[in-house]
Design goal:
Layout (H helix, E strand, L loop, with lengths): L2 E6 L3 H12 L2 E6 L3 H10 L15 E4 L2 H5 L4 E4 L6 H8 L8 E4 L12 H9 L6 E5 L4 H4 L5 E6 L3 H11 L5 E6 L2 H23 L3 H22 L10 H12 L4 H10 L4 H8 L4 H16 L4 H11 L4 H9 L8 H6 L7
Parallel strand pairs: 1-2, 1-4, 2-3, 4-5, 5-6, 7-8
Antiparallel strand pairs: 6-7
């Protein structure tokens, strides 16, 4: 083992990424607040609540002691839910070594502030935002933990840090890693695709078929690109792993929590019932509220997001939302991205 890496926290994605790191001969400290969960991981090498039946390497050690996990760690991976990211980063900050590589793999925005996760972490750790590396792309924890072939992207405006993250995670057997300098685009794509996945689940739950879902994915990508470019992203990012790649995998698989949540809503369950039955964070719900506010802030048209917001928070029915989308004023397909693309990306 050649590096100590702290992974905060021990949900499904954090646990799956801990497996990759352990397979790469890192000494992994997986932090959780739950003493019973830590005991289970250390004694049975399983995390049954989040990844049933997956056996974990012995190179993963779980702990409830945050200082123990973070002190002297050469790399720290934050995988806390967006709602808890600031708190976890604040708690970890006193123990983070100044030279540690900082990464996060959370897809969402912070509630009221609408900040990206790299911004939240940089504020709490007192580091430039470019120091934070974003890990994203088409990747179900259930497949990664079982060592099925997966390809992701790590993004930072500091290419040396992105390449350090690439070296940390690259596994030639099942986990391929690309670098990307577009931190904003990778984070925005990873967050907003969860909204479109909710819509895909709704569409499937209503029995609307493949034609409707293909349209939803395609027009959803246009919404992601419109907002992302308005926020300063490179539009080409949305044609890559963090964009269309992640969108496809999240909208077409029953592994996706967001797809499952949308499907349950289509069956007539209230949002509170869906979240209770899921038992895990559904980032797309909070992200819908954040993206709705960001669209207003940047004056960007996001009709799918608007209609999902009306279903989740304003009592509209899924059927009414579909009718509103289908009845919109006719328009051209391509002009939105071209008109929203800053000239610096067209050189």
């Amino acid at each position: 083992m050649h590096k100590k890496v702290a992974v905060l926290v021990a949900g499904s994605w954090g646990t799956a990424l801990a497996r990759v790191l352990a397979d790469n001969r890192c000494a992994v400290q997986l932090w959780t607040r739950n003493a019973a969960q830590a005991e289970e991981i250390n004694t049975t090498h399983r995390n049954e609540k989040y990844l049933p039946h997956a056996e974990l390497p012995k190179g993963i050690r779980a702990t409830t002691d945050l200082a123990e996990a973070v002190q002297d760690a050469e790399a720290i991976l934050f995988v806390a839910p967006s709602i808890a990211m600031r708190e976890v980063a604040k708690l970890a900050a006193p123990y983070v070594h100044k030279d540690a590589l900082i990464l996060h793999a959370t897809k969402g925005f912070e509630g009221e502030s609408l900040k990206r996760m790299s911004t939240v972490i940089s504020e709490e750790l007192g580091r430039p935002e470019g120091d934070i590396v974003v890990l994203s792309g088409p990747s179900h924890a259930e497949e990664v933990v079982n060592r099925l072939p997966t390809t992701i992207v790590v993004a930072s405006s500091d290419i040396a840090r992105a390449e350090a993250a690439q070296d940390l995670f690259m596994n030639n057997t099942y986990f391929r890693v690309y670098t990307n300098p577009d931190q904003i685009g990778v984070e925005t794509a990873g967050a907003i695709k969860n909204i479109i996945a909710l819509g895909a689940g709704l569409s499937d739950g209503l029995g609307f078929g493949d034609n409707a879902k293909a349209a939803l994915i395609t027009r959803g990508l246009a919404e992601i690109a419109r907002l992302g470019t308005a926020m300063g992203a490179n539009p080409m990012t949305f044609a890559g792993l963090a964009g269309i790649g992640d969108l496809i995998v999240t909208c077409t698989s029953q592994h996706s929590r967001n797809w499952r949540a949308g499907s349950m809503l289509a069956q007539g369950l209230e949002l509170e019932q869906v979240l209770e039955q899921m038992g895990m964070v559904v980032e797309g719900v909070r992200t819908t509220k954040a993206a709705h506010a960001l669209a207003a802030k940047y004056n960007v048209e996001m009709p799918i997001t608007d209609q999902l917001f009306s279903v989740l928070f304003q009592g509209s029915s899924p059927e009414r939302a579909v009718g509103a989308l289908m009845g919109r004023v006719r328009t051209h397909e391509i002009e939105e991205i071209a008109s929203a693309t800053p000239s610096k990306w067209l050189r």
